[in-house]
């Protein structure tokens, strides 16, 4: 199996963050189920794992704060996976989900401060 490039890893990392945001709450129940309980959880498991985050950190694409926040986002999400809060209603209303959404949005905001859209697109080509 071939290892993905650091550019593709960064793209998948950002895509994972995009699945879980305050605006996700406005989607239909079916789209929330798909974005959160299929796409986001796969991304959290894969692209927010230690080895993926270490690759991003080692290549200068995230800093120590983003690394730490991403690890915390993964921990909080995996804590809910399979619990009685792993449903659309909880996603829309539960405090535990509000913390996850806020942290995901915070990470995205920090990345946007670090890299502009053109630079992000160039990184994807690495």
SSE layout:
Layout: H1 6-19, H2 29-47, H3 50-58, H4 64-80, H5 88-93, H6 95-114, H7 117-124
Radius of gyration: 14 Å
What structural category characterises the helix and strand content? mainly alpha
Question: Could you give the distance between the termini?
Answer: 19 Å
Q: Tally the beta strands.
A: 0
H-E string? HHHHHHH
Helix content: over 70%
Strand residues, percent: under 5%
Regions with pLDDT < 50 over 5+ consecutive residues?
A: none
Mean pLDDT: 94
Please count the helical segments.
7
Largest β sheet strand count, sense and barrel closure: none
Write structural notes for this entry.
The protein has helices at residues 6-19, 29-47, 50-58, 64-80, 88-93, 95-114, 117-124. The chain is mainly alpha-helical and 126 residues long. Helix 1 (6-19) packs antiparallel against helix 2, helix 1 crosses helix 7 (117-124) and helix 4 runs antiparallel to helix 6 (95-114). It is built from 7 helices and no strands.
List keywords for this structure.
126 residues, 0% strand, mainly alpha
Task: Summarize the structure in short.
The chain is an all-alpha fold and 126 residues long.
């Amino acid at each position: 199996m071939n290892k993905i490039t650091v550019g593709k890893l960064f793209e998948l990392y950002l895509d994972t963050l995009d699945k879980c945001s305050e605006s996700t709450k406005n989607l239909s129940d079916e789209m929330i189920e798909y974005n959160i309980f299929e796409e986001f959880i796969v991304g959290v498991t894969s692209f927010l794992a230690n080895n993926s985050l270490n690759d991003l950190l080692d290549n200068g694409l995230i800093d120590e704060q983003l690394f730490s926040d991403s690890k915390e986002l993964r921990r909080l999400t995996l804590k809910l996976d399979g619990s009685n809060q792993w449903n659309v209603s909880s996603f829309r209303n539960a405090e535990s989900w509000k913390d996850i959404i806020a942290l995901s949005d915070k990470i995205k905001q920090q990345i946007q401060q670090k890299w502009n859209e053109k630079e992000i697109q160039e990184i994807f080509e690495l």
